[in-house]
Amino acid sequence: MKNKIILIGGGGHCHSVIDAIEFAAEYEIVGIVDHIDKVGNDIMSYSIIGTDDDLALIINEVKYAFITLGQIKTAAVRKSLFETITALGYKVPNIISPLAYVSKSATLGRGNFIGHQAIVNANAVIHDNCIVNTKALIEHDAIIDSHCHIATGAIINGGCKVHSEVFVGSASTTKQGATINSKSFIKAGSVVI
């Protein structure tokens, strides 16, 4: 029997997470919570069954939750939701696409999404509530603090330190050993040296 899971946020990132969950076939999605005006709508055959305010009641039936709200300009909402669901007692798993590679020596916290064809290499560390999107590369010994989004095709080279609440845009590349300060916004196609 699969563990039941509730998804939080019904935008575009939710589609990617649903696809990975269905492919891995490890969880049963019971529904999505989003804004009140979206309740009753469907996303990829899953109903929006409530709002964030309903999470305190939903936990009586569903023990797992995952944040499917994306992150571009700021991590504030994802961070707040993560704090809320952990305080309520939800179990927050990592969702890892079967098409991704995560080294056995890598360390992952909770609530991370590792998308299709993403690579998390040897001794890399990813803390909590991060998005490592499609085809992103986290190289050996890199450290990604909590609440970061490493967008599609971005490359975090070996030994890099990405502090909390950072957005690294699509196709960006870091020099080996680079440090990215908290709450930085790296535009798509950037080179960080």
Count of domains: 2
CATH fold name of the largest domain, please?
Answer: Rossmann fold
Largest sheet: 6 strands, parallel
Mean pLDDT: 97
Strand order of the largest sheet: 6-9-12-15-18-21
SSE layout and pairing:
Blueprint: E1 3-8, H1 12-24, E2 27-33, E3 42-43, E4 46-50, H2 55-58, E5 64-67, H3 76-88, E6 95-96, E7 101-102, E8 107-108, E9 113-114, E10 119-120, E11 125-126, E12 131-132, E13 137-138, E14 143-144, E15 149-150, E16 155-156, E17 161-162, E18 167-168, E19 173-174, E20 179-180, E21 185-186, E22 191-192
Parallel strand pairs: 1-2, 1-5, 2-4, 6-9, 7-10, 8-11, 9-12, 10-13, 11-14, 12-15, 13-16, 14-17, 15-18, 17-20, 18-21, 19-22
Antiparallel strand pairs: 3-4
Task: Describe what you observe in this structure.
The chain has 193 residues and is α/β, with parallel strands linked by helices. It has two domains: 3-93, Rossmann fold; 94-182, UDP N-Acetylglucosamine Acyltransferase, domain 1 (3 Solenoid). It is 16% helix and 30% strand. It contains three helices and 22 strands. The protein has helices at 12-24, 55-58, 76-88; strands at residues 3-8, 27-33, 42-43, 46-50, 64-67, 95-96, 101-102, 107-108, 113-114, 119-120, 125-126, 131-132, 137-138, 143-144, 149-150, 155-156, 161-162, 167-168, 173-174, 179-180, 185-186, 191-192. The strands form five sheets. A six-stranded parallel β-sheet has the order 6-9-12-15-18-21, covered by helices on one side. Strand 3 and strand 4 (46-50) form a beta hairpin. The longest helix has 13 residues, at 12-24. The chain starts with a strand and ends with a strand. The relative contact order is 0.13. The model has no long low-confidence stretch (mean pLDDT 97).
